[in-house]
Amino acid sequence: MEDRINIPVGDWIEAAVDWILANLEPALDGIAWFLGLLTNSFEGALLAIPAWLLVLALVGLSWWRVSWRFGIFAIVALGLILGMDLWEPTIKTLSLVLAATAVALAIGMPVGVAMARSDWVEASIRPVLDLMQTMPPFVYLIPAAIFFGLGTVPGAIATVVFCMPPVVRLTNLGIRQVNREQIEAGLAFGCNRRQLLTKIQLPLAMPSIMAGINQTIMLALSMVVIASMIGAGGLGNTVLTGIQRLDVGLGFEGGLGVVILAILLDRITQSVGLRRKASG
Amino acid sequence: MEPIIRVRDLFKVFGPNPQEGLRLIQDGLDKDTIFERTGNTVGVKDCNLDIAEGEIFVVMGLSGSGKSTLVRLLNRLIEPTAGTVEVRGRDVTRMNQRELIRLRSEDMAMVFQSFALMPHKTVIDNAAFGLEIAGVGRARRRERALEALDQVGLKAHARSYPDELSGGMQQRVGLARALATDPSIMLMDEAFSALDPLIRTEMQDRLLDLQHERRRTVVFISHDLDEAIRIGDRIAIMQGGEVVQVGTPKEIIVDPANEYVRSFFHGVDITQVFQACDIMDSENIPVLDADTTAGEARNRIAHVPGNEAVIVDAEGRFRSVVQAKRLGELTVDRPASEVAVEVEPVTEDVALADLPGRAAKSPVSIPVVDADGAFRGLVTLPRLVEALDRSRNVAVANGDH
Ligand SMILES: Nc1ncnc2c1ncn2[C@@H]1O[C@H](COP(=O)(O)OP(=O)(O)OP(=O)(O)O)[C@@H](O)[C@H]1O
Ligand SMILES: [Mg+2]
């Protein structure tokens, strides 16, 4: 065989991983501890509420925020989940989604604001976002598993990384799209930088930011399902078991659970940004 | 009197290299050449202005002539490239952030062409915005916002959202937002241009009314000549970033600085701009008491070019007009008032356009009085004809271009 050009990208990454494992152990432990605590608290809290009460709350929310028809859908859909005996994995998935989303927003929104404030920051973060979004989601599972082992925490971490880009992008975009005269109005009445952000830019960017949050939640859900491959559990696990046992029925039930959760999360979060108007 | 806003040698060049643009301006190149050569846009060029406290100062000019840039330099929403802007003697261009914020929140307010209201806030909270930023408590600021809304006639809509109001109403919310902070200086960038003519006139009246209640300094950008003439104490005309002429509407109409200014006033109805006080004769009219004798009256009239005198009462209020030819009917010791003609006087601000009709019906010249009825002068027939003739000439001259 003749010599082939072989740039050892794989070797470099491995070296980097080794270095991180050797030197950043406490930081990794800290992250793992925090995310574990967050997901467990969400899950514990949601499971502590009786199922019927939670169903009632979700149906009420759907009815009130979206429409009465969607409320009916929620009754049927959640009844189906209970009927398929998928309540616990659904709650597990939901808490993972909520925890990952919370962390993604806590990091992503400030990053989006920073991008909006400086062209330089925007130019340097944009390629990172592109990378994060185009990388096949499975790829995140490997480093997550290496750094954090198997289980819920690496699943949550892979999810945070994967679902963060939309809220960063849309926060940046939303703030940048605020009308120039509105910024000028803020300044002309004596806003300082902080007031400009909190009183003008963020409120006016809210529709865009809400769209970003919605997308982040949806991405988190899809990633949580994939993350069951490294033991994140939940509905993804149901699907995975179905595949492993070649049990079409079980796989379909798990899939249906994911779809129902997706629809509920999507419609309810979409409705949050809208101002409710008194009839008409 | 010390001007409240004093602008000196002010330049604003937009683009990649403003200092280079500035050098080229000083080399005498014009805006278009500079843009072609360097990509820098001249926004405002060598501007010098004194704006007096309490006046409505209108800035006019074609699109792109630098009006918005100029007004934003006054509260430093735009950083100048060179020059100074002083407000009450303090140089705005050298203020630090804290001083600037204080100036903006306490002394100046701005009204925007596109309203720039906050869609997520109710009308009252929009009007209270400036006070909110200044840290005024919720109850207090709402109270003051409500007063401001009342001033613009929108008190009833305080709880609506901006998108539930018409454009004209939103514009008034923008005005209320500025008024609520009780600024001494208001910057209005084409603040009425989004309005239909009817609401627009109404808003102009509102503004003038408000000036009577509390005199503010208003810098008002307008595209509309009639508006400028109607509300402006003085008008500045901008061309390619330069202020080419500043003056009262009449001064500019009578003596335009160049063709551009002349063409700007093309089509304006001059007989609406000039008023009785501009064309009346106030010097050559003998003013007599009620008991002045015919002999003395004849004597006094003989000493002036005209052939009329007026009789006023003890307080100086106009009573009647006496013509020289009628005095001949009296013996010298009779009171002149016996042959005087009593006619209805006009006030000083009656438009030139309304005078020919009056003159046609009046047997004597038209007397002009001030708001208190005190005699000011006579609009004689020769004066009226001359004024109409002159205004036709101005109109014709304007019409050529
Ligand atoms: N931010 C900017 N960057 C670059 N050029 C600008 C900027 N703002 C204004 N200009 C330029 O400065 C010049 C003056 O613009 P300005 O907005 O002051 O005009 P204007 O008289 O207010 O016009 P209009 O009547 O259309 O509002 C124009 O040539 C414009 O292109
Ligand atoms: Mg403008």
What do these coordinates show?
- The complex is a heterodimer of chains A (280) and B (401).
- Chain A has one domain: MetI-like (MetI-like fold).
- The radius of gyration of chain A is 21 Å and the shape is globular.
- Chain A contains 12 helices and no strands.
- Chain A has 280 residues and is mainly alpha-helical.
- With 401 residues, chain B is α/β, with parallel strands linked by helices.
- Chain B has 2 domains: 189 residues, 3-Layer(aba) Sandwich (Rossmann fold), CATH 3.40.50; 111 residues, CBS-domain (Roll).
- Helix content of chain B is 39%, strand content 21%.
- Chain B has 18 helices and 16 strands.
- At the A-B interface, α9 and α10 of A face α4, β6 and α6 of B.
- The site of adenosine-5'-triphosphate has 11 residues of chain B, from β2 and α3.
Topology:
The complex is a heterodimer of chains A (280) and B (401).
Chain A: H1 9-23, H2 25-48, H3 51-66, H4 68-83, H5 87-117, H6 119-134, H7 138-148, H8 152-176, H9 180-188, H10 193-226, H11 235-244, H12 248-272
Helix pairs in contact in A: 2-5, 2-8, 3-4, 3-12, 4-12, 5-6, 5-8, 5-10, 5-11, 6-8, 7-8, 8-10, 9-10, 10-12, 11-12
Chain B: E1 5-14, H1 18-26, H2 31-38, E2 41-51, E3 56-61, H3 67-74, E4 82-87, E5 90-91, H4 97-106, E6 108-111, H5 123-127, H6 129-133, H7 138-151, H8 167-180, E7 185-189, H9 197-213, E8 217-222, H10 225-231, E9 234-239, E10 242-247, H11 249-254, H12 259-264, H13 270-273, H14 276-279, E11 287-288, H15 294-302, E12 308-312, E13 318-323, H16 324-327, E14 346-347, H17 355-361, E15 366-369, E16 375-379, H18 381-399
Parallel strand pairs in B: 3-8, 3-9, 6-7, 7-8, 11-12, 14-15
Antiparallel strand pairs in B: 1-2, 1-4, 4-5, 9-10, 12-13, 15-16
Helix pairs in contact in B: 1-2, 7-8
The complex binds adenosine-5'-triphosphate and magnesium ion (MG).
Residues 14, 41, 43, 61, 63-69 of chain B line the site of adenosine-5'-triphosphate.
